[in-house]
Amino acid sequence: MTGTTGTTPSAGTLVLAGTPIGDVADAPPRLATELATADVVAAEDTRRLRRLTQALGVQTTGRVVSYFEGNETARTPELVEALEDGKRVLLVTDAGMPSVSDPGYRLVAAAVEKDIKVTAVPGPSAVLTALALSGLPVDRFCFEGFLPRKGGERLGKLREVAGERRTMVFFEAPHRLDDTLAAMAEVFGDERRAAVCRELTKTYEEVKRGPLKALAEWAAEGVRGEITVVVEGASDAPQDLDPAELVRRVQVREEAGERRKEAIAAVAAEAGLPKRDVFDAVVAAKNAARTGSADGKGLS
Fold first, then answer.
1. I need a surface site. Which of 54, 170, 202, 225 has the fewest CB within 10 A?
2. How far apart are the first and last CA of the chain?
3. CB atoms within 10 A of CB 147
4. Which of these, 111, 78, 105, 121, lies nearest to 3 by C-alpha position?
5. How far is CA 287 from the centre of its chain?
6. Tens-place pLDDT, residues 31-82
7. How distant, in Å, are the alpha carbons of 50, 96, 104 from that of 24?
8. 231-274, pLDDT tens digit by residue?
9. Burial level of 68, CB count in 10 A (0-12/13-18/19+)?
């Protein structure tokens, strides 16, 4: 099995190095050494790398190359070749650990395929920092990265994780934060607890905690900076939802293109209820609409 029987003796080493997510003083001590001694430094943004080395008082002696989303596929073979030639290749991103919503996965996979040693300089992580500061359960969590930019696709992705019991961590752009929080409130429920972590470890660090609806209203006023959102997982206990709310959630899913059967199953899962309870609520609303006793709000 590839990558499990040891590394190629003559090959070099790929080093994934964590970089500060805000305060440069958080840089791991080994980072300076690796920057100064690596044969090749692959950086997501070479200008940011230059500012980092200046702040750390370090001078790179190896070759510096850019390695970002736009050239990751094309540049990976070149870096693998350097590794096969015995070079020590250091990979750094703009902030945090490489491969976590940043370039790195393709290079790691290619190095593993060639039995090349891969190691890491552990460093700051926005995911773990936000999770720890959120005040939400941390015993089990999952990282969902960035949600789709388009509203319909974003709602679809949120519906996929609506029944997730673990605490969820997301990244989001500040100009989309209000829409994302509103969509989360729509899918997860207005009262689902969450925390918006902004500018972590920087001068204007802020952690805003509260129900999703309230956070969406706060974000509508405008938010700046790097954003990480932590959302409480679905409750194991059945939610106290009245039939009208169950019907509304089914309608939302149907309007997004889900079949009624699938929508009922999903709503039941996220509410912690038997599918029969949701089905009965939908049928009751449909019958009430037909008889005109629901003011036209039932399902058709």
1. 54
2. 56
3. 23
4. 111
5. 42
6. 999 999 999 999 999 999 999 999 999 999 999 999 999 999 999 999 999 9
7. 13, 11, 22
8. 999 887 666 788 998 999 899 888 888 889 988 988 887 777 78
9. middle
